[in-house]
Design goal:
alpha/beta; single chain; globular; four-stranded mixed β-sheet; Aspartate Aminotransferase, domain 1; 17% strand; 417 residues; binds pyridoxal-5'-phosphate; Aspartate Aminotransferase, domain 2
């Protein structure tokens, strides 16, 4: 019997086999037919400490005996209160308010609405959103509008709003990025939204903490709100809890999701500075922040996030990450020696490189599906972005598992070359 499931980012017309996973533990996915697959990309960048982390699973089980769901407009519960309090303690002190939603995309929509709400109160003429070339902020209409335009969103182009784009700060072109940002800010924009240090879906493109600090300073100088989308970079991926820490900056608005629950349940937060909150604070109901979704701050998801935060506070997570970074550096060096491997790069636990393309480039390059299939045949879950290959494993991965991924990749690159 054929499945009625319509999968995301999947061309069903190609009839590629879709593996069925029954359970997972640590870095390993167990298929229905008994195979053990190494999850080299943290199940699309969400799993941080490993699949079915015992502390997170226990916290979820415990919460299910108390409170499953609660209207969050005008009501509250302990898991959300604790989580908001602890998030404020772990992030820059300027971020004093926590707004809950369900996914990275919705956290971005909320951030954009907060920024526009701020300017509606202060200077309604400021409406322009500045974005960075090659960015990805999600697949809802607003999030697509501030992301890279391409084959992914071409049919929806009529729905997307106009933005001002600054070029990606490629090596040697950083000044052009800063100058363009300066000019866009000077013309009175509302906000600049950016992925700190690593542009994920845009191809694991990386830039320096120094540049991030300079971009933040330009926005501050012009009063343009700085929105950090750390949906992917947060929770240790770049080596620090937040990528912003490496630039010693605080955004005005911060988006977190993916690793917020350790990757176990959908949850997101948009954190805001006091001025952003205050712009919506009034005795006038017409000025409240008009956003909600049914499952805002779901108690079970909040309990999972609280367990994640406890792991960060109480376990040697930073040491695990430091060890993984070392293994990743060594693996990247080994892979960089292979013919066809170019533009190797690393940001903390993430390594990436491009495979020299022979004409047909971009996301639809056939390198990605061929390499993905090769890896799957050898029990590795990998999903290249066009001709960009990257590894973003959960922090519990073992050295031998990473070495196996390296061997499989080396064979695969030779086979498709
Ligand atoms: C994945 C991602 C999103 C979207 O998150 P979803 O949970 O898939 O909606 C937004 N921003 C960045 C930087 C991401 O990597």
């Amino acid at each position: 019997m054929s499945s009625p499931v319509w999968h995301p980012f999947t061309q069903h017309g190609l009839e590629e086999p879709i593996p069925l996973i029954e359970r997972a533990q640590g870095a390993i996915l167990h298929t229905a037919d008994g195979r053990q697959i190494i999850d080299a990309i943290s199940s699309w960048w969400v799993t941080t400490h490993g699949h079915c982390n015992p502390r997170i699973m226990a916290a979820i089980a415990e919460q299910t005996t108390r409170l499953d769901q609660l209207i969050f407009a005008g009501w509250t519960h302990d898991p959300a209160e604790r989580l908001a309090h602890d998030l404020c303690a772990m992030t820059p002190p300027e971020l004093t308010r926590v707004f809950f939603s369900d996914s990275g995309s919705t956290s971005v929509e909320v951030a954009l609405k907060m920024a526009l709400g701020f300017w509606a109160a202060h200077d309604p003429a400021r409406q322009a959103i500045i974005v960075m070339e090659h960015s990805y902020h999600g697949d809802t209409i607003g999030a697509m509008s501030v992301g890279e335009r391409g084959v992914f969103n071409q049919p929806y182009e009529p729905l997307l709003f106009d933005v001002t784009t600054v070029p990606f700060p490629a090596s040697g072109a950083q000044q052009q990025t800063l100058d363009t940002l300066e000019a866009a800010c000077a013309s009175g924009a509302a906000a600049f939204i950016v992925e700190p240090l690593v542009l994920g879906a845009g191809g694991m493109l990386m830039y320096s903490a120094d540049l991030l600090a300079q971009m933040r300073a330009i926005c501050a100088r012009h009063g343009v709100l700085f929105i950090a989308d750390e949906v992917m970079t947060g929770w240790g991926r770049t080596g620090t809890l937040l990528a912003c820490e490496q630039a010693e900056i605080s955004p005005d608005i911060l988006c977190l999701s993916k690793g917020l629950t350790g990757g176990s349940l959908p949850l997101a937060v948009t954190m805001a500075s006091e001025p952003v909150f205050k712009a919506h604070y009034s005795t006038d109901r017409a000025r409240m922040f008009f956003h909600s979704s049914s499952y805002t701050a779901n108690p079970i998801a909040c309990a999972a996030a609280n367990a994640n935060l406890a792991i960060w506070r109480e376990e040697p997570v930073r040491e695990r990450i430091a060890t993984l970074i070392g293994w990743q550096t060594a693996l990247l060096e080994r892979l960089s020696a292979l013919p066809g491997v170019v533009r190797t790069r690393q940001a903390g636990t993430i390594i990436a490189f491009d495979i020299e393309d022979r004409g047909e480039s971009g996301y639809l390059s056939d390198i990605a599906p061929r390499l993905r299939q090769h890896c799957l045949d050898k029990d590795v879950l990998l999903r290249p972005l066009g001709n960009t290959v990257y590894l973003m494993p959960p922090y519990c991965i073992e050295e031998a598992q990473l070495a196996h991924i390296g061997n499989v990749l080396a064979d695969g690159i030779a086979a498709i070359g």
